[in-house]
Amino acid sequence: MIDVPLRLTLDGAALAANWRWFAARSGRAACGAAVKADGYGLGARDVVPRLAAAGCRDFFVTTWAEAAALGRAGDGVSLSILHGVREADLAQALASSARPVLNSPAMVARWKAAAPHRACDVMVDTGMNRLGLTPAEAGSGMLDGLRIATLMSHLACADEPGHPLNDTQRARFAALVAAVPADRYSLANSAGICLGEPYAFDLTRPGLGLYGGVPAPGADGQIVPVVALEAEVLQVRDVAAGEAVGYGATFVAPAAIRAAILNIGYADGYFRALGPGGAAWAGERRCPVIGRVSMDLIAVDVTGGDVSEGDWLSIDLDLPNAVSGTSLSQYELLTGLGHRYQRRWT
Ligand SMILES: *Cc1c(COP(=O)(O)O)cnc(C)c1O
Q1: Please, which pLDDT band fits residue 322 given cuts at 50, 70 and 90?
Q2: Are 302 and 273 in contact (CB under 8 A)?
Q3: Most buried among 5, 208, 247, 328, by the most CB within 10 A?
């Protein structure tokens, strides 16, 4: 394998521990896993078998292309396609054991015509106005005759525990449970699970928290980091007082400093917004990012430290901290990591 000056270390035990935490918080409900966007950037083909070994049986991706990329999900494992079934998806859908999540009346009609006896899932929109049938459509009889494995809805504000829309959506969903027959009912994502058991119904669908994101205030200190980044020092240089570092000369050394140039940049998901407040670590020494983040490089202040060319520094990617004060979300950080890392699971 070609050696790369940029590493992503993924902790399989932490991934499993996070899933078990959500499974325990889901009470009597089964706990699934959202593995869309290539397992939130970690690699769905690596994530799914690890979660399946931990006991997860219900997986969610967005499209049939993501399902195909996953390969065979394994025995006793169910896969749902959140974006449903377009006309162009029918051939693959009929050849697959995965289930479409029917989102619109046209999708319902399409599935009834193409596979009247095959199980499907159905999404009902209870207040987010994104994908899904309206509750009125769901109750209109249009679903009669379908074999619905999972009837689901999705919360818009679960990361804000006090938001009134949470209870509104839960109540609307509870009314659907009474009105629309399905094998199982599912409402909660990671943050929704943190809202408590009344949100869990039969099946939960965490994503973010599995991968080390902290979805809600209540999960602080409970979620184990899964992703660790390290970049190699390509060069170390002395910067005299008054000299600038990086594009735009936005950083000017207030005194003589030593800077290490690291092999990571915004093309690796280390976005410009992470520069201010961002840091690398040389052992116990915090080395703040100085100047603008480049496409492939950052500079960090290593003054007084023992850092040389060829050393590896770890990049601080404590997800909630890394995004605080920026307009980025933890989701964007994970899914933006890019493809230039040498990836290693422990
Ligand atoms: C992405 C997604 C999830 C997982 O959400 P997290 O906030 O990452 O836990 C669950 N359900 C649906 C429908 C989704 O689109």
Answers
A1: confident
A2: no
A3: 208
Instruction: Report pLDDT digits (tens) over 85-126.
Output: 999 999 999 999 999 999 999 999 999 999 999 999 999 999
What predicted TM-score, i.e. pTM, was given to this entire model?
0.95
Active site residue 185: no
Q: Is the CB of 154 under 6 A from ligand 1?
A: yes
CA of 315 from ligand 1 middle (Å) equals 27
* Gap from CA of 214 to ligand 1 centroid (Å): 13
Binding site membership of 208 for ligand 1 (Cβ less than 6 Å) = yes
Say how many Å lie between the CA of residue 187 and the centre of ligand 1. 10
Catalytic residue flag (residue 199): no
How confident is the model at residue 317, as a pLDDT?
Answer: 81
196-233 residues labelled b (16+ CB within 10 A) or e (exposed) = eeebbbbbbbbbbbbbbbbbbeebeeebeebbbbbbbb
The CA distance from 123 to 345, in Å, is: 34
Q: Which residue's C-alpha comes closest to atom 12 of ligand 1?
A: 154
Task: Among 3.10.300.10, 3.20.20.10, 3.60.15.10, 3.30.470.30, name the CATH number for the domain at 12-213.
Answer: 3.20.20.10
Give the residue whose CA is nearest to atom 15 of ligand 1.
82
Query: 2.40.37.10, 3.90.550.10, 2.30.40.10, 2.60.40.420: which CATH number matches 227-345?
Result: 2.40.37.10
Q: Is 82 in the pocket of ligand 1 (CB under 6 A)?
A: yes
CB 107 within 8 A of CB 146: no
Q: What is the pLDDT of residues 25-53, one digit of tens each?
A: 999 999 999 999 999 999 999 999 999 99
Is the pLDDT at 141 greater than 90? The verdict is yes
H or E stretch at 345: strand 342-345
